[in-house]
Structures
1.
Amino acid sequence: MLELKNIRKTFNPGTVNAKTALNGLNLTLNDGDFVTVIGGNGAGKSTMLNAIAGTFLVDEGQILLDGKDITRLPEHQRAAYLGRVFQDPMMGTAATMQIEENLALAARRGQKRTLRPGITRTERESYREQLKILDLGLEDRLTTKVGLLSGGQRQALTLLMATLQQPKLLLLDEHTAALDPKTAAKVLEVTERIVTRSNLTTLMITHNMRDAITYGNRLIMMYDGHVVVDVAGEEKKNLTVEQLLGLFSKASGSDEVDDKMVLS
């Protein structure tokens, strides 16, 4: 479903502030893969997601999505194939609009706008059923303004909105990092439920090594702009945090693991 071939990206090239964020990155995701991505600060995790989303164009390499070359496609055109949830729970929803209005916007993404009534009775019932999967009671609060929801509720709603049209690829950029541990665990449960239900190909960045091991069918660790660890299946299921740290040290030739990753 996704192929990254020898991707390179340097910010501020030719200056004293030059920073190589992606350094010959190669990665292939099969249809339905749920891949957790871990690595220290500056490893290139978020840069990889931004490169896939088209936030900036890469210097070298090729990005293929479901066989289509999207390397030079602008961000707004790639959005038709991607779902994305950011770290900030406030970024994915419109606070002054109702829950059902937010869902209607997500459901109509990419469609032509008309003068039809905003939300039909059939659509409202569909949204109610969709919200039940979140198990947060939001199906009974369709007319509530989203700005009145908690951060966790908004992030769960954003996740639902991002997957309403079943994207070819779902990008989760540390989407639980701004939540308290209990709420983060709940959102991760919802994430697994939605991804599994729709068999979505997913890339999930996290700093939490336990979450990286627990969720998904595959785990990759990045260092210095490329993948240094790639485990899947039974090997991933049986991993411990200590073994993961050992794999990182062996593959990267470095014992440098930032505090954020260890403390998580």
Note: The chain has ten helices and ten strands.
2.
Amino acid sequence: MSKYYFQVERAGVHTTFQDLGRFNVQHLGICPGGSMDSNLLKISNKLVNNSLQEGVLEFAYQGPRLKLISGNAKIAITGNVHFTIERQNNTSLGKQYNCFETYILKEGDTLDILATKKSVYGYLSIEGGFQLKKFYNSVSTLTRSAIGPNDGKKIDENLKIFFIKNNENNNKKIVQWKNNFNDNIIRVLEGPQFHYFSKQSINEFFLSKYKITNHSDRMGMRLEGHKLENIVSSNIASEGILKGAIQITGDGNPIILMADHPTIGGYPKIATVISADFAKVTQLSPGKEIIFKKVKLLEAEKYFHEQQEILNKIYQQITI
């Protein structure tokens, strides 16, 4: 086992280890899971010279407070996050720390991730990665299934978090990432049960604003708004589902399935959030409103490739 580690002094609201997900096991009742915002996870890893799929710490609202007990570490935080680094020699007092930059932590320093600001989720990566055991080729944590690192639980106070590499250089990386966390127009494709709903309800679905409720987490995002009229059946035979699917429950309100969604479901699905907008919707907090916009498959593919081009330019900028 590595001798380099952090001690958790505060765990935060919901802090877990995540990577890009656990695939090809949904037939076993295990959903892919993985990060809510894969763009931020990838950028954080690239900043510290990791592979894009390396496991990181994902946190929501308030992150952890971590004291570096042994070793030196290069870290990066992505998102819209307020954090401080408390140096053992007190040289950090009053200093401004920014996301999308690398920082060197020395033994005895404390990293305090105080809060996310405009976003919901943020990510902490470390050069060389955390020392984590994979399950089905992934270190993503599924708390409801107790799968993943730390016995499938959120991180705990006093937990020791081990990492692999002791930092030996001070090379700094900075990247510019523009993300409008207030953009609430979410593009969707027609769902497999789109025709289950009346024409009036379909029109209302795309013309109305839906409010995100407090009953939202890594499994699903419950919305309130215009109740949709189902003209066929409010239930279907259970079938495989995927993240981004928008189910309509018996009360007529939508639920957007998130990263930790069930593997099968029996509610009709009116639409599916396109891949390019999934990260965007995950960063919208309770109380905000969503407007859905229908696009065609070719458009969704175009938006996906445009997003990948932007990310590739960022990766190139980091490696220069």
Note: The mean pLDDT is 94.
3.
Amino acid sequence: MHVKAVQQILGLLLMLFSLTMLPPVFVSAWYHDGSAPAFVSGFLVTLLTGIAIWAPVRREGRELRTRDGFLVVAGFWTLLGLFGAAPLVFVAQPSLTLTDAVFEAVSGLTTTGATVIVGLDRLAPAILYYRAQLHWLGGMGIVVLAVAVLPMLGVGGAQLYRAETPGAVKDTRLTPRITETAKALWYVYLGLTIACTLAFWAAGMTLFDAVCHAFSTLATGGFSTHDASLGFFASPLIDVIAIVFMVLAGANFSLHFLVWQSRSLRNYGRDPEFRAYLVILAGAGLFIAAYLLLSGHHDHPGRAALDAAFTVISIMTTTGFTTSDFSLWPGLLPVLLVFIMFIGGCGGSTTGGIKVMRWLLLYRQGHREVVRLIHPAAELPVRLGDTVVPQRVVDGVWGFFAVYVVLFSTMMLMLLGTGVDQVTAFSAIATSLNNVGPGLGTVVSNFTAFEAVDKWVCVVAMLLGRLEIFTLFVLISPAFWRR
């Protein structure tokens, strides 16, 4: 393992990340909210720490190995959470402890959207912008952005990209060079963000609200500038715009690039994961809308349909925006929505959750085993469309699922051990590990009721969810550290 090369990369990335604390300074100056010194302090602390890490090994020229890439990504996301919290520690209002500041920063960067801050409508605009910016940077993965930048600094990035985007189909390169792949994804991401901003602005939001909510929407994060989230605007048009862009953000960005490159929407229809994604969204939305009407919770079909569609899409894409309190919905609906959190969006999107692709492979594998009971000697490969899925990929999905269940159970038991009630513990880990935001029980709107130890458990869950478990979990394996 090349420890000095890892140290060099971490220092460079931390210096780059410090620059993201400068835009809020200009926002603070524009609105005269008095929070600029906190961001300047955060910038200096982060920059100087990055220089201190990088300077002793600045002449290191070794190429990263795959194992080094995992260590860089895990280390950098840990540093991101700690140093991203710096401005929130330095700012006078809201007054946050270190635990709360780290929780908020990690929630932003992992695009979870869970919060420990109340009174957003009275908060300094620079703080609101910074929270949304954390979402946007974490959405596609700031390490993928670094992959496009680091080659200019003489550092290769292929290993970083593989560690940042694990999964069954995420290693497919769109262009011959990894740097061009990262740039292509960011062009799509940036283009959709601009389109979403303009749509929100045209629908009646202020430009500031439009930018912040576009950042949160495309990152499928959920941080809002208002305590009532998108429900503050009470605008069906804004809800529909959010639905459209949440669906797009929940799809594979590689697929968006291919559609743009080929100038043909047929690529969407040919993708089995995207088709399954739309079917699940439509099926869950229709069921919940019908339940809301038949139970008498809604008496207007249009309102029921919009509420159901918005909430299902917001939860399944792990965005976490709300227009109504779904915990008050009748019958099985609140628990059903928590279960939907586990599905997530498509692989290669900004969403959390287990991902539609993995569920699809689990279903195909299960179907194959049933058929094998009838035809034991038959050769039955697992297929996605016309493609035969390698058995190693299927095994990897089962491994992911097994580790996921063990980690979920362990962290839920940890919360139960600190005195958290069962409903809250289950939904808190579900919303943290799946990077969603809202839950049930005492975390239906925020995590302020949690003790410090509970918040740290959720911080770990958010990081595990953002990096899809294996990127962090591999570091505790003895085999990782053997020569």
Note: The two ends are 8 Å apart (CA to CA).
